[in-house]
């Protein structure tokens, strides 16, 4: 909502989402569809996966998963953002969402997870690219931001492969289970040139680890877990290095 007295005109008008139904978005050999109540059980299981549990700092009972699905569906009508189930040949493969939607400045933050059995096949990059196509096209956003812990190498790869420009590091920005994490911030601006997206890989999923790195970036213990001093730091440039 625009603050009273703001002198700039809103880029997007209220109603841009709520005046229509959340669309199904086909793209890059997968489909993004609104969440359904029937997804709750799989959603609860998804948050049992150690990597999803870790990076999204959440676990859900079945009842909580039902509320989660409702929350994700309601985001659209409330114009707070929008969340889609990613499906591959009808199977639930992951989640991709826009959060922190600011209609006045036409910007939002993208987030995602992919179920373990669908990892290593380009699902995250294809889902992010499909949503970004829609966000800059149909919705006409100006900027889409992406943040991930500096420890989350897989997410950094997804951001770069989807064409998000690395902009910098936000210190101790996000509270995870093991404390405060520095966050890399990436962004795409409308009109940025993006790499071509590779088609879906129908071969067996590649083995990917839970991307717990052997060398770590920055973790600062949260006051609730320990009063210990910041533990480990490595050069942040390791993760921010862009392809030549
Ligand atoms: C991060 C995640 C979404 C990646 O999903 P995915 O579908 O396997 O990713 P893709 O197949 O599209 O791979 C994209 C890039 O990441 C790289 N990658 C994927 N998993 C990786 C891993 N564990 N370690 C390092 N790189 C990895 C791929 O090699 C690819 O890089 P490339 O384009 O240079 O070849 C998935 O591992 C996941 O859900 N993790 C847990 C939740 C999470 O981290 N969410 C993001 C929070 S910010």
Question: What structural keywords apply?
Answer:
Aminopeptidase, binds coenzyme A, 6 helices, alpha+beta, 244 residues, 9-stranded mixed beta sheet, 9 strands, 24% helix
Describe the structure.
The chain is an alpha+beta fold and 244 residues long. The chain has a single domain (25-192, 212-240), classed as Aminopeptidase (3-Layer(aba) Sandwich). Helix content is 24%, strand content 27%. α1 (40-46) crosses α3. Mean pLDDT is 85; it is low at 202-244. The site of coenzyme A has 24 residues, from α2, β5, α4 and α5. One of its GO terms (molecular function) is protein-N-terminal-alanine acetyltransferase activity. Keywords: Transferase. InterPro entries: Acyl_CoA_acyltransferase, GNAT_dom, Ribosomal_N-acetyltransferase.
The H-and-E topology, N to C, reads as EEHHHEEEHEHEEEH
Give the distance, in angstroms, between the N- and C-terminal Cα atoms.
Answer: 41 Å
Tell me the count of domains. 1
**How many DSSP H or I helices?**
6
CATH class value: Alpha Beta
InterPro entries: Acyl_CoA_acyltransferase, GNAT_dom, Ribosomal_N-acetyltransferase
Domain N-acetyltransferase: 30-184
GO molecular function, one term: protein N-terminal-serine acetyltransferase activity
Keywords: Transferase
